[in-house]
Design a protein that fits this description.
With about 160 residues, this protein is of the alpha+beta class. It has helices spanning about 45-55, 75-90, and strands spanning about 10, 15-20, 35-45, 95-105, 115-120, 125-135, 140-155. The longest helix is centred in the middle third of the chain and has 14 residues, at about 75-90.
């Protein structure tokens, strides 16, 4: 949890820096509630993995197409898909990650059709979400966890 000594966070882009005070009141007037969910479907390709590998410099051979073995999707890439849903849809823009727990109970392979879900489970000063990435065909959970979030005010 962020200390009261540091109630501001900086959000930067190339041309400016904006200081946002963290939202610390209850969210009773906000338009979302516990039980709200969002879900998308996505199939990751080898090109997606190669792009991610180049961005992160993670060139572990398990993420490459090496003969008979199917490439395994980066766990951080799955986490990024969840982060995209949280930061742009539920709760949405201004969301700040406070803490996160995650598990990878099964491997996710290139070409598998994924359903990525986020559910808002608690709406207080600290919001809590649960998330899952499931391979549709096999009903196999490949990524799951919880995150605690805050909303930035005036961003």
């Amino acid at each position: 949890m962020l200390s009261n000594r540091f109630p501001y966070i900086a959000i930067s882009n190339k041309n400016y820096q904006k200081i946002c005070k963290l939202h610390t009141s209850t969210f009773s007037s906000v338009s979302f509630k516990a039980g709200d969910k969002i879900r998308i479907q996505k199939t990751l390709t080898q090109k997606d993995l190669d792009t991610f590998s180049n961005l992160t410099s993670d060139h572990n051979y398990i993420h490459k197409n090496n003969g008979n073995k199917r490439p395994i999707v980066h766990g951080a890439l799955l986490n990024g898909l969840v982060a995209g849903l949280i930061g742009t849809h539920l709760p949405g823009p201004g969301t700040i990650l406070v803490s996160q727990t995650m598990k990878f109970p099964n491997k996710c392979f290139v070409g598998e059709k994924l359903t990525i879900s986020v559910e808002l489970v608690d709406v207080r000063k600290i919001l809590k979400v649960k998330f899952y990435c499931i391979v549709e065909e096999e009903k196999k959970v490949v990524f799951e966890g919880e995150a605690k979030l805050m909303l930035a005010k005036d961003c």
